[in-house]
Amino acid sequence: MSISIMKKLSVITPKDSVDEMIKRLIKLRCVDVRNTESDECGYLLEKMNYDVQRSDAEKRLAEIERVLPVLTKYSSRMSKLGDGRMKIDREEFVSDGSFKHTWEKIEAADSDLKRINECKNRISADEKLIVSLTPWIDYGVSLRLCNTDRADLVIGSMPAGTEQSDIDEALGELYASVDIVSRDAGAVYVSLISLKSDTDEAAKKLSSLGFIRISFPGVDKTPKKAIAFLNEEVAQLNSEIENLTEDLRSLSEYLSDIEVLYDIENTSLTEIINKQKMAATEDCAVLVGWAPQMRVEKLSAELDKLCCAYEIEDPSETETPPVLLNNNRFSENFEWVVGMYSYPKYGSFDPTFIMSIFYFFIFGLMFADVGYGLVLTVCGFALPALMGMSEKTKRSFNMFGYCGISSMIMGVIFGGWFGDLPYAIMQNMAGIENAKEIYPFFDGLWFNPMDNPMTFLVVALAVGGIHLIAGMAIKFYILCKEGKVFDAIFDIGSWWVIFAGIGVFFVFGALPGWITVGVGVAMIVFTHGRHEKNIVVKLLKGILGLYDITSYASDLLSYSRILALGLASAVVGQVINLIGTMSGATVGGFVALILATLIGHTLNLAINILGSFVHTSRLQYLEFFNKFYEDGGDPFEAVEPSEEYTID
Length: 648
Description:
Elements: E1 2-3, E2 6-14, H1 18-28, E3 32-34, E4 46-47, H2 51-74, E5 86-87, H3 90-95, H4 98-133, E6 151-159, H5 164-171, E7 176-183, E8 187-195, H6 196-207, E9 212-213, H7 223-251, H8 255-276, E10 279-280, E11 284-292, H9 296-303, E12 309-313, E13 325-326, H10 335-341, E14 343-344, H11 352-366, H12 370-387, H13 391-414, H14 421-428, H15 435-438, H16 453-481, H17 485-508, H18 510-527, H19 535-545, H20 548-557, H21 561-581, H22 587-624, E15 631-633, E16 646-647
Helix pairs in contact: 1-9, 2-4, 2-8, 4-7, 11-13, 11-21, 11-22, 12-13, 14-21, 16-17, 16-20, 16-21, 17-18, 18-19, 21-22
């Protein structure tokens, strides 16, 4: 409904009171702490240095985050329905020894995880080495360097088609011998023995046949013994992993305490981050931030309990406060859609309430189906309640829940029931030929867009016209509020006269219509250039102002996408129903119906939720907001405790 009025908060407190002050502000959840500039209070301040503390806090949190998902996986704890967060006294958790005891369990779990990863890496390396050694399993010589004073032993591989005769021919008269150890589909594995003086030459000649040297660093046994040793080591490592995994299962009993610790440490990190935003002298620290006016009284009461001096004042003309949207319980679920575009500028008009009504209506037109809407409504409202989602995520789901209600309403009006599922079943499985005549309710209380697409297009364009005029009306209101009444009348009202004239043309005839349109055109031509001094420029700008009619026409045509989206979901639904019922009232037919309904309609639902969301949002952003919206607002982000798993 509006943008909350913001007050600037400035606090000066002794350095030793900073921790207590930040803790209180976090519990209040109503202050957006900002970076304190060095000249904020009129004299030189230095940033408070908490880099070491922040680094330590981030490391502790990272350690918990490594452990949490693993222990959750092994935990036998039943999943909780609804908001499963625990109500707990965090100060008592720290003071009664639970904090220290839980950290010991985390460190033990983290140690187990690190060792498991080491074992897995070692197993992976051993298995790769076993694969490499397997072709040499019948090679009876130790792979440790076996060179003598006069001879060299070299092993390697050659292309798969290489024969012994090819090797012998290549070596010629050299004092060298090559034995083929084994071969497979990819290569031939050979052993070269030669006099030291002939080794390089022998290797060179063999290279012409594709010879590649192979070495196994660290292997000092024969391949067969090395493989046996590696297999035994892999078995031992797997056994160790099993023991460590059992230990993790035991540690998962402390999962609830670890979740408490996560919220405590995450809140501690939040405290440090916000202390870093402060600046200080040798003895005092300065904090600046923003708070909504409606929470100022409560904020003052808390600050009065501290040893500090504070001031709560209106923002100056050069300051830009953050934006906190304040809407009713229905519209607040659509605030994130506005945020995806950009928050409104502070002090400007908040479009959320009006946008939410149009969003609700247009989404339903695009996805007019009772069945799909019911699924969307149940998921939008039931899932957040059952899964205990955060407030932000809950609002996103609730928005789709409300859109599902709109889809159900429009589905009744325009005849969408999982496409035409009732008629498909009646006609193809029950043999009722004139089902629409007997049961007209399922064909829509008004009309069915599949049978009357042009009528639906007119409805879509009519809704679009209302949407555009609403955007213009908001601009009219904003201009009047700013004292620019003439701008509102001539820049906005003149177009309304033209639009009214077009309507009069069709209702009352050509002459009254042309007269009304002419009045609107005259208003534009003679007032659009009113700020220019040169009379010729005034007239030219006025004439050019008429070109905006193309923009309005283009915007209006954009609403034809309502027809396109509405027909798309209905047509796909009908095809799915035809496939599902074409086998008739047989066992196979019922199986086909169930599969088509579950698979086909689920895919159609997913695709058209995305399509309706994207295109409904687009109509708000490009057609509606374009008429009046001032964006660029910085979202208000109050410092809050971490409550991922617990409530303090």
